[in-house]
Design brief:
about 280 residues; alpha/beta; 12 helices; 6 strands; elongated
């Protein structure tokens, strides 16, 4: 798995904040000692901006962290300086979504619920193109589609991400791009749902009300326990990452409940196959 600079930056931010607090220093005091503004240090500790390895070394010396522990963190900081593949699409990807893609690139598990559309990781090229056309217009559409398809490599790499998807049944009924596009998309969903690392479940209308009504989400976890889990929420103009333990646990419990309410994987595969035939 390729190390994501986004995840590395997030790790450094959390470590520096914890080390400062452990040293009993306020942001004001630490910033003065490090010859930077309080606002800059705050932005670094919240992973809003990066920090150069030499500045990490200075911070670690201030917090009295030396030896192998210091060198390990400095090496992580070097990794955070690298460019992720998604940064070459910065002309069409908003900065807030680049942050999400950087997390997704190194996630060990993804658990998601979708209300209206097939998740990006499972979209066909034609379906993705129509979604972008409807939600964002024609500008840069081919570049956006290319970036979306590139994201799907996480499903097929060595040590692929474990993906659990719950789809509202409405996703299977809403024609996006016409019958041919939908038939191909449903067939693709049925095929990819049979990958050993992918589980797709359909939440039928008959399930009635549920705890995630009108609230799509993604819960990401990482192989390294030092990288805390994240809940990612998105609307048309921004994305929001929730990192508090209670928030992540709440969404995780919601996903477990949706999985219980949804059709099982085999019944969901049957439903997807039926949808594919309907549009054919």
């Amino acid at each position: 798995m390729t190390a994501s600079p986004t995840v590395r930056r997030r790790r450094i931010a959390r470590e520096l904040r914890q080390l400062r607090e452990r040293a009993g220093m306020t942001l004001d005091v630490a910033a003065r000692q490090l010859d930077m503004s309080k606002s800059n240090l705050s932005r670094i500790e919240n992973a809003l901006i990066g920090i150069k390895p030499r500045d990490v070394r200075a911070a670690l010396a201030l917090y009295e962290v030396t030896g192998a522990d210091a060198e390990a963190l400095i090496e992580i900081a070097r990794g955070a300086q690298q460019r992720g593949w998604w940064q070459s699409y910065s002309d069409v990807l908003p900065e807030w979504f680049e942050f999400y893609v950087g997390l997704e690139a190194e996630a060990a598990t993804l658990r998601t619920y979708e209300v209206e559309a097939v998740p990006g990781l499972l979209q066909t090229e034609a379906y993705a193109r129509e979604v972008f056309r409807r939600t964002a217009g024609e500008d840069g559409i081919e570049r956006k589609v290319a970036a979306r398809l590139h994201r799907q490599n996480v499903l097929h790499r060595d040590n692929p991400v474990e993906l659990s998807v719950v789809l509202n049944e409405a996703v299977l009924c809403r024609p996006v791009g016409g019958d041919a596009v939908m038939a191909d998309q449903m067939a693709h969903l049925a095929k990819v749902s049979q990958l050993p690392n992918v589980t797709v479940q359909v939440l039928p209308f008959s399930a009635g009300g549920h705890p995630a009504m009108n609230a799509p989400y993604v819960v990401l976890t990482f192989a390294d326990a030092a990288d805390a889990a994240v809940v990612y929420l998105e609307n048309l103009t921004m994305g929001l990452a929730l990192e508090e333990v209670g928030q992540v646990r709440g969404y995780s419990l919601v996903h477990e409940e949706l999985c219980r309410m949804a059709l099982g994987p085999e019944a969901s595969l049957t439903r997807l196959t039926e949808a594919s035939r309907y549009f054919a």
